[in-house]
Amino acid sequence: MHPAPSVILFTTFSGLGFGLLAWLGLGYPAVTGLTAFVFFTIAYVCAVGGLMASAFHLGRPERALKAFTQWRTSWLSREAVMSVAALLVMGVYAIGTIFFATALSLVGVLGAVLCLLTVFTTSMIYTQLKTVPRWHSPLTPVMFLAMAVAGGALLAGQTTAAVILLLLAGGALVATWVHGDGAFARSGTTLATATGLGSIGTPRAFEPPHTGTNYLLREFVFVVGRKHGMKLRIIAFVLAIALPVILLLVPFSHWLALVAVLSHVAGVLVARWLFFAQAEHVVGLYYGKR
Fold first, then answer.
1. Spatial CA neighbour of 244 closest among 225, 266, 214, 277
2. Where are the coiled-coil regions (predicted)?
3. N or C: which end of the chain has fewer CB within 10 A?
4. How far is CA 70 from CA 78, 90, 113, 147, in A?
5. Does residue 77 surpass a pLDDT of 80?
């Protein structure tokens, strides 16, 4: 079993897209005309492409519009509302900069805030899950926001800010790994507590509850070896953080900047794969996977 590619693409590219849109909304870089068109095209392709990938991850993609109706209680619904609001507001700002060489500052700031709120609501879809102790931490939204803002700065060509923010994002990424590794044990959840049979002995799973697979097994129950996981973490950190920072610190070149962006994207994809592959849902106890 492996994490669904659609959810990995969604969390990676929507974060990058909304991160870039946030920087553009704040006026960085201050571009107009054709140059603005190129920047906004990249941002919208990433953001909308990521959201489309999330729609395919739904059990019934044809019912995606219903995701907007439960905003009072559902973080998924809030994400849908925020993403559309952000895209519409930033669309107005983009029209001003592209066709009229006019930056509507208040509209841009509002759009930037909505973009960051979109990333936050995405992170809360996972943070809210008490059944996944590794995700159920304030570090999860911090990591999502840090990666989005840093990636956005990189795409926006804000070299100095990108170096600083990439280092901070790297710190947040490592912190989520270190904290997450002990989260399941700290939660105190075992087969005994899950079944309530701990008072009469130490229960163990005699055999799996069924021979086939199901949604939870496909989405949340993975076993990643410690050595394999560590290698992937190193790859993710080097590609997403270390290499882009090094490339940004050497004398500027558009080709090196392109390599830095591609390296960052590849690293974030690996990090997101690990985020889902190492989820450790407590339901794994029921199937003898924990």
1. 266
2. none
3. N
4. 8, 24, 22, 27
5. yes
Identify residue 1 by its one-letter amino acid code. M
Alpha-carbon gap, residue 258 to 263, rounded angstroms: 8
Tally of domains within the chain: 1
Give the DSSP letter of residue 189.
-
What is the rounded CA–CA span in Å between residue 233 and residue 251? 28
What CATH number does residue 156 fall under?
A: 1.20.1630
Taking only the tens place, the pLDDT of each residue in 93-146 is 999 999 999 999 999 999 999 999 999 999 999 999 998 999 999 999 999 999
pTM (2 d.p.): 0.90
Note down the domain range covering 187. Answer: 5-287
Dist CA 221 CA 270 (whole Å): 18
Closest listed residue to residue 122, CA positions, set 57, 63, 75 = 75
Res. 72 pLDDT band, cuts 50 70 90: confident
Res. 59: pLDDT tops 80: no
- Closest to 41 in 3D by CA, of 98, 119, 108: 98
Tell me which DSSP letter residue 252 carries.
Answer: P
